[in-house]
Amino acid sequence: MNPLPNQAYRELLASPLSLAANLLLVDPSGLGGIHCKARVSPWRSAFMQQFSRAAAGLGPVIALAPHADERSLIGGVDWVASLQAGQSRFEAGVLGRVNKGILQIGMAERLQPAIAGLIAQAMDQPALQGTMPAAIAAPSAGTASSFACLLLDESLAEEAAAPGLLCCRLAFWITEAQWFDKPVHFLDSAVLERARKLLKQTAASPDVFQALSESALAFGVEDLRAPQFALRAFRALKALVLSLDRQVPEEDEVIAAVAAIVYGPRATRLPSASEVQSQGQDKPQPRQPADQETVAEELSAGDRHQSPAHLNHAQGEHQAASGKNDASAYQPVSHHHDVSEVQAPVSTSQVLAMTVAAAQALLPAGLLAAAALAATARSGASSVAGRSMTRSKAGLRGRSLGVREGSPGQRSRLHVLATIRAAVPWQGLRERPSQDAPLRIERSDLRVHRYEQRDQLTTVFVVDASGSAALHRLAEVKGAVALLLAQCYVRRDQVAVIAFRLDQAQLLLPPTRSLTRAKRQLVALPGGGGTPLASALALTAKLMVTWHRQGQQCQTIVLSDGKANIDLDGKPGRAKAMQDAHHQARLLARLRLAGSRLVWVDTAPRPSGEAQTMAEAMRASYCLLPYANAKGLAALAS
Amino acid sequence: MKHVYPFAALVGQDDMKQALLIAAVDPLIGGVLVFGDRGTGKSTAVRSLAALLPPMQAVKSCPYQCDPQQSAAACPVCKGMRRRQSITVPVPVVDLPLGATEDRVLGALDLQKALREAVKAFEPGLLAKAHRGFLYVDEVNLLEDHLVDLLLDVAASGENLVEREGLSLRHPARFVLVGSGNPEEGELRPQLLDRFGLSVDVKTPKDLETRLEVLKRRDAFDQDPAAFCARFEAEQQALQTLIVNARGALASVVLADEVMRYIATLCMKLGTDGLRGELGLMRAARALTALRERAQTSLQEVIDVAPSVLSHRLRRDPLEESANTSVIARALRDMAAA
Lengths: 638, 338
What we know:
The structure holds 2 protein chains of 2 kinds.
Chain A: H1 7-14, H2 16-26, H3 28-31, E1 33-37, H4 42-55, E2 61-64, H5 70-74, E3 75-77, H6 79-85, E4 90-92, H7 94-97, E5 102-105, H8 113-124, E6 148-153, H9 164-167, E7 172-174, H10 189-199, H11 206-218, H12 225-245, H13 251-263, H14 273-277, H15 295-300, H16 307-323, H17 332-341, H18 348-359, H19 370-376, E8 400-405, H20 416-423, E9 447-451, E10 456-464, H21 470-486, H22 488-491, E11 494-501, E12 504-512, H23 515-521, H24 533-549, E13 552-560, H25 574-591, E14 597-602, H26 610-618, E15 621-624, H27 630-637
Parallel strand pairs in A: 1-6, 1-7, 2-5, 5-6, 10-11, 10-13, 13-14, 14-15
Antiparallel strand pairs in A: 3-4, 8-9, 11-12
Chain B: H1 14-25, E1 32-36, H2 42-52, E2 56-59, E3 86-89, E4 93-95, H3 102-106, E5 107-109, H4 111-117, E6 122-124, H5 126-129, E7 134-137, H6 145-157, E8 159-164, E9 167-172, E10 176-181, H7 190-195, E11 198-202, H8 208-223, H9 225-231, H10 233-249, H11 257-270, H12 276-291, H13 299-310, H14 324-337
Parallel strand pairs in B: 1-10, 1-11, 4-7, 7-10
Antiparallel strand pairs in B: 2-3, 5-6, 8-9
């Protein structure tokens, strides 16, 4: 029996984006949407066009304007129409108009958390009544409706991604830009329509529940929404296959496909060999054998000498697990052929093996690299709260803070609604210029927008993690980070940590103001090895530019003795290394980002001038602190 | 009518459910803060609360849902009424969206009335809607500063004072503040933290059976909400009766001196700021006793509520690794041993 009914089905499974897009079209409100991490490209545009065309049968496809505010989302009183008609007229917001359609959100990484929150709320409760002003809650106007989101996230690797609270409500996370290279296939609208009708009737056996729950745990996916999405995706895919050829598909194959696409990008660990290989277990076995408690937890136990061994262990197991699938790693589909030849009831371990193979390409990039595992383990794929802390500096941009009295001019913009509102109570008293003029507005009624003006300060610690004193230095930096964050809800500042050792520099802690997050990520700080000062300064410069572009001021504190011995290419050699480092330091000085500040803390026990020269090249203030301590560093930063 | 996932059908998360029920029994407890990972059922629990609570009596056509039993003096609308008619309304559970404007939260000039009837009237905001009910702020740690200030002020006084656009009025706004959030996204301002009477940490269940049950129930609900709600109707009713009875019994719950002494000793041992810890602990223990249908509070109730009452009130040393709940657990153990 051929488990792959026809060409269309095979094409579907070949590209994750095809699978996600088609499933979404079958069950838009249940699956929530797709989070596409891809920058603008002809491929993306082509996909968007195709998708819009395919989704046209569902409902409207509405693109969210980048400047959309609360009112444009949930609607409100239509002032022009109301003033003309002499009675209230309402207009529906985007969330009301998108009824059963697709909301397309471009530049999702710049989405305000407040807006993301509203959208998420609308997805949770199709009726937004509770949040609307009494007048608008009237049935005439924009009650929100069920819809799906297409989140287009253009963030770069080191930037914060789209708001996590929105992402976690979307079933599919397509994270790799190159998938847009593969052709995306959309099924016939007739097929999709039939699948939507079949959706209600497709059953899922208890085995499916079991398999999906177990594989979620095996991949370390804790969010309980994920198995729900997987289940819905299972139903949708089954309905789709049924509608393609009216033949019941292999259940475990469908499970593997949906588990791979839903859990793959969310995975925080890989299933261990024992989980994958133990065959024919009917009873659920304990999911996490003692030696395999989630890797991140091992790390957070604080035993940093043990962790590398465990990471290798985990990876070794992964390779053992997928060893037999190596040949099919790039061709998950042909692999399905092999496994499903074996006719058996749904066995979790077997499904898991298939899922691991199918998920290979979908796993977060960092997961397979042992070094990056610690950083990504608990936090998942960049779950930072979007642009939550970015503030614009221009007086005419940014988050609206409401209105104030004043005349519009160069630095302020007229707030029409508030102006009318201020003028209305006086209309009875004022003489109107003519009968036709509905309102008489005077200077005292004028209202202008007030915008968020505050700048965000990010303190970046660039820590030399090389040599013997590294552990002590890192511990003190960790303390300083904790102290700064403990007071940061007052100042709303953020802290980031870059560490450099061996042959490269690494962003250990992306800018955050969460103490919890910082503690989790700074638990396992490795130390020792060479001093790649040049690459550290290069990374610092790159990140400072990125953050500055996001509206943050950077204050960078470098902790090092300035004795570089690894050059920019990662090769040892003191002379070249020092030369590279000086060059990078001068480049850093030339950035001259507004509001940025550089401090060099010399940590050498016997300062010999290297650090001072380096600081001068960087135009940084120089400060001698041979025994860096947390309190001193925190004081330096504040 | 749209079906809401029933409270009684929530799997696990007993701490959170207990805290919400305590707040439902005694609104003066001062609100519940639920902190935890995504996808742990925080929002589901809060939103299911509305359907669980017994409906209340309110004055007809009063936008603030005033209690007909109480004096009309506090409410600007009731004051003007000659006779107050009473109607039954559901307890409001109002969502405060992150991006809400001050106008929406506080209320603003009613433009429709102003334009059509040339009357200066007040259009109540979310605070008015939440009076006598619950105000739910999801992602409370991301709430803008100016909104936090508003909330703090109103939550402290139980009254919303409006001075804007030529309007000047005050109306009652007493609500139970329920906040939820993910600590990874930012800390909460200590002043706001202090306003919450109870705080619970929710964790994702890690055992397969629980997760499987969650998945099954959610799926059953999605497939046929009406049938699912019917399945839990009896349990839901029982819980509602429990809340009603507990509210009635609350005043008569006896708190023996030795229990009070225990509470005070515990707070001294933990070094909580001020007396709020003691007072909160007393209230919460009393509400829990009423929920357990007992007449006298025992040490067990105090021990059961202590983590959620005290964990957010401890002075926190940022360099300290261990969580506050474990500090409390240790203190409780020490006292049991002594």
